[in-house]
Every structure is written in C-alpha cells, then in structure tokens.
Amino acid sequence: MPDKKILVLNKQQIQQKIDRMAYQVLEDNLDEDDIIIAGILPRGNFVAERLKLILDGIAPFKSKLITLDLDKNSSSLKAKINVDIEECTNKVIILVDDVLSSGKTLAYGLGVFLDVPLKKMRTLVLIDRNHKIFPIATDFTGIALSTVLKEHVDVVLNEPGEEDAVYLR
Of the candidates 14, 36, 85, 99, which lies 20 to 30 Å from 47 by C-alpha distance? Predict the structure, then answer.
C-alpha cells in the first residue's frame, strides 16, 4: 500500500511563506549594511536561495549566500562551509533549513559559528515540527506544524519533474 501523502503547502503557499519571512528578516536588519544567509544543504539551501532573491529586491542591505554541508549522522560537529569562516566576523548570520524537527541540524549549524564573533545570529525554517530535543528556537518560521513522531514531512523544492510542495506522510 503506498504512503498516503497530505498536502500541507503548495507552490504558491511556500512562496508566500518565504516572502513573509523575507520581510521579517528585513525588519530585523534595517540598520545593517549586509547580512549572510547560510543555507544548510540540500533543501535548506534552496530556501536560502529564494530568501536571498526576495531580499535582493526589497532590502537596502546586501545579502551574501553561503552553504553549510553538515554530517547530520555524526555524533560530533563535522561541517564544510563554502567560504572562509572569517568572512562571517562581525556579520549578521541567518541560518536557514527546510524543516526543524529535533533541532540537531540547526545546533550543528550554530556550532559552525561558535568561534567567530558575530553581530547576531538568527534561525529561519520553512517548517517547525515542534519535536525538539535540543534547546533550539526559530526566529522566523514559515509554518509550525504539529505532527506525531511517526509522521514524516517531505519538502519538495527544485526537484526535476515535480512541483514544489510540502507533504505530510
């Protein structure tokens, strides 16, 4: 029997959520000259790319996109970043992922920047499942979704042949 998928957000609704979060990021950083948007690979980076595109059209500040490649299955922080970490010194960092479930991925993402003096760090997720086991809170959330642990959230972004959507199965 195939998994039953429930549509949570369609393409238009995803875009509306990202648009709204972009305006929230703008309001939070009006006095800044530039910010860094750090997308967690793979789908967090897709959200980050869309966020940057919107901010480039509405914000007076410059935004730079960087990517974080985290080993989410490791028991210790193992991460690769596509820039020299010193470029983040005294900057505003917006850490972006698609789904916040346990909080481990965002905790690892925050860990990348622990030894760098920052102006401020904010977190942004498209979906917050509210199943945190780490003390992680999001600053900007597309939608908070109450689910049971056995359910899975599928975020489909930039998939060939598929329309962007969020499903619960």
Answer: 85
Shortest CA distance to 28 belongs to which of 114, 122, 113? 122
What residues form DSSP beta bridges with 127? 99, 143
> Tens digits of per-residue pLDDT, 63-77?
999 999 999 878 778
Would residue 31 count as lying in a domain?
yes
CATH of the domain at 105: 3.40.50.2020
The residue segments making up the domain with residue 47 are 11-147
Task: Please name the residues in contact with 131: beta carbons below 8 A apart, sequence gap of 6 or more.
Answer: 101, 102, 147, 149
Determine contact, residues 45/34, Cβ cutoff 8 Å.
no
Question: Quick check: is 115 in a domain?
Answer: yes
Give yes or no for a cis peptide into 42 (omega within 30° of 0): yes
User: Is 152 inside a domain boundary?
Assistant: no
